[in-house]
């Protein structure tokens, strides 16, 4: 291959993986080597990649797959010397990884609203700024939570199974009966934007009242849905539907355990679309299998994926989804665009659109 052809090949290769716009000249290649280096840990949806590629502000390398997460060993190699990192929730951003990245790392942008995969203390210690993606996913998560609630309370998975497998005999008076939202009390554990958005969607189903528990009353949010602040005990005792909407923190880890389930009504439905870590799954299994509560719908578990041999999968009254609450095309693209913009703004030393205050 002639040296001219080799240069052309190099220039072409540089366009896509390194995120440099348009055709790359030799001068361009030289300039590119001075641009901030970024590693993207996943093939994120196209809008975010386009923003990075067309910014002309960074050279980026990415783990070019959405099917398997970047192996830890590869990640530790790839982050060496980068100025910015764009990650998703499967990557643990801890001291080991930040040490591997080294002192150039100034900005971390996660394509998620949750940030329990980030060691905030380590990030703060190193002066690394952190972007995340709240709000753009609120509608999608609220919509999915309503779908999961109705699927669980009206036993839709059992019903389609029976219809398909010959269990559908004559019309029966109490067969596959569930619980309805009309006249019910809906309890929200952790009232934030998402809890409010869920309640707004549930209200037209004629819910009787909304109650919530949080570390402190949140009157501004509560008044939007006319919700009453109650203790955790009252939340457990009164809720016909108990929805977990809180972040996973050391304080909320396994906060849903036998103490809570034992106080719930045997007719109650438990729904979790936040993080699996807020639930003690052994206690939940016990509560579901003994009829302590009527059913559970989970979009999140520990671990993820939940092994198919897990006891929770054996229960008819437990509906398990593979962490898809924000999974609509428009929302995932909006999340990737926000994560890309947060990263670019952070690298320019400007305020991010959504930045965590550490
Ligand atoms: O779980 C999803 C997220 O944190 O965005």
From TrEMBL:
Q: List cellular component terms (GO).
A: cytosol
Q: Which Gene Ontology molecular-function terms are recorded?
A: glyoxylate reductase (NADPH) activity; hydroxypyruvate reductase (NADH) activity; NAD binding
The record ties this protein, via InterPro entries, to:
D-isomer_2-hydroxyacid_DH, D-isomer_2_OHA_DH_cat_dom, D-isomer_DH_CS, D-isomer_DH_CS1, D-isomer_DH_NAD-bd, NAD(P)-bd_dom_sf
D-isomer specific 2-hydroxyacid dehydrogenase catalytic domain residues: 38-355
Any Pfam family from its record, for instance, is: 2-Hacid_dh_C
Q: Residues in domain D-isomer specific 2-hydroxyacid dehydrogenase NAD-binding?
A: 146-325
Keywords on record: Oxidoreductase
Q: Which residues form the signal peptide?
A: none
The family this protein is said to belong to: Belongs to the D-isomer specific 2-hydroxyacid dehydrogenase family.
Q: What is the recorded name of this protein?
A: Glyoxylate reductase/hydroxypyruvate reductase
User: What species is this protein from?
Assistant: Cyprinodon variegatus (Sheepshead minnow)
